[in-house]
Every structure is written in structure tokens, then in C-alpha cells.
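Translate sequence into C-alpha cells.
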Amino acid sequence: MFVRILACAALALCVATPSWSQTYPTKPIRLIVGYAAGGSVDTTARIFAPKLSADLGQQVIVENRAGAASNIAADYVAKAPPDGYTLFWSSGTGLGTNLAFYQKMTYNPLKDFAPIALLMYQSNGLVVNPTVPATTTKELIALAKARPGQLNYGTAGTGTSQHMTAELFSKMTGIRMTGVAYKGGAPALVDLVGGHVDLVFSPLPEVIPYVRANRLRAIAVSGAKRTPAMSNVPTVGETVPGFAFEGFLGVVSPAGVSPDVVARINAVANKALQDPDVKNRLVDLGLGIAGSTPEQLGAHMREQSALMIRIAKDAGIKPLD
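Result follows.
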């Protein structure tokens, strides 16, 4: 009889108490971005935030914590309470590829995060200051070979897609350039416009406004295919056979978060991705639409981490720290 009473009480409690997914969220949610405002990761977070807020019924706030190729923000999120109120909106750097460049990371992206959704793919645009005497990939390669080590390229930090695209380009073309690291893609582009660096491989959402305003010259895009946003701009691979480099953006939570919360955020993130306004804005920025399950993002993080380790090793890049 006592066991039956306990069982009935437990059943009543389950019925009376809504699941965590039904009660979540009860307060604002923070989307932590590891780069300065104005970059592609920040821009996409701010496009999604209003849609996520509407569907979740709580304000979603974008918070920038720039530095160390997003390691500062990643470490902050990895150590945050796993309650679904602190999320990491990141490119591949903070989601695994930094493992190729840092020996003493204070977090492990493949262990300390709960994957939620892979949302976008992004190619980098190869853009130059208008004073650089090159209008095609072929001309840029010739210029770099004539001036070994003299052309400077800006990056958002060691191990970022900007850095690795330039390294892969240098290796496959046999040229030598000098990298200049910034705290994000936006400041690198500002210096490119100012003539302080010669070129940048930067995510298309960051370079397209400058190209359309005729402040920078687009030479090529790094992906395997041309982008509808700049259909007249060729791929690097059209000149350098076999060249292709594409980054990604996703959202994760600290490990240990409730699976119900992961499922809820995954659902609203994928739903926002299909919103016509969001979709059109992303395509106009040159981004590829993805969408995924948490498991698919986790697999992609592991694959891209292994790929970047191989590229870094082939390029002779020594880990930092």
C-alpha cells in the first residue's frame, strides 16, 4: 500500500509540474559573440535575435566579448551555468578549429559545449584596397610573387577563417604574404579601406557592403561555388584548381544543459532560419543556408576541427601558447 501511495504521488507530481522545456525560458537569454560588433558573426546574431525573442517569449540579447580568436567568449560560455540562458553564437573558430592553433586552451569545444544547431555556411571574399594593382586572382598571385612577403593581409586572429584561407591560398599558389591580426573582421576591413593592409579574406557578409559602395575591390570568393550575392565575382578555384574554403556558424550551450532546452532552442533557431525575411537577408549577405539537428552540428564540429589541424600542419603553422 505504501509503495502504491508513493507511485500515485509521483504521478501526480509529474502531471502537476510542467516539463523544463515548457517553462523555459523565464528570463532574458544572452547570445555571446566572440568578435567585435559589425563582423559577420555579430551581424547574423542580430538578425536572428528578434525572431528568437518572439518565439521564446523572452528577450534575446547579443553580447560581444571579443579577443583571442573568440577564445575569450568561448571560455566564458563554457564555464557559464548550463541552464540555457547563456549561449555561444560562433563561427568554427570557437567551435573546434581553434584546437589546431592553441596548446593551452582553457576549454575544450568538443567536450565543454552542447551542440544545438548548425545554421549557416560562409565563404570568404578576397578583397583588396583599390590602390592594389590587381583585379583578378591571377594578377594578385603575380603581384605577390614579384613582392615576396611585402603584401599584408588582415585577419580576425590566428586560426580564424580569414587566416586559414590566406594560408591555404599562399600554400597552393607558392606565394608569401604577411598576416596582421585584429580583434575581429570589422576592424581588419576598416584598416583595409584605410590602406594599412593590402588585402583580406573576409566573410562575405562583412565585405559585400564595402564592395557595393566601391570602397574595396572584390577579386574572388573562397567557396567551391559563386555566390548569388556577387554572381559576377569568380571563385578562387576557377584560377587555382582544387582551392575551396568555407566556414560555418552555429549555436551551442554549455555542456550539461537539459536535452529539452537544447531541443527547444534548436526548434526556434531552425524555424527562424526559414523565415522569409531572415532567409533573404542571409542570402543577400552571401551566406549559405544550413539548418541541422544538434547531432549534425556536433559531427561537423569534429570534422572541421580535424580538417583544420591537417591544414595547419601542412602549412607549418606552430600552435600558440
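Note: The beta strands are 29-33, 60-64, 86-91, 113-128, 152-155, 178-181, 199-203, 217-221, 246-254, 287-289.
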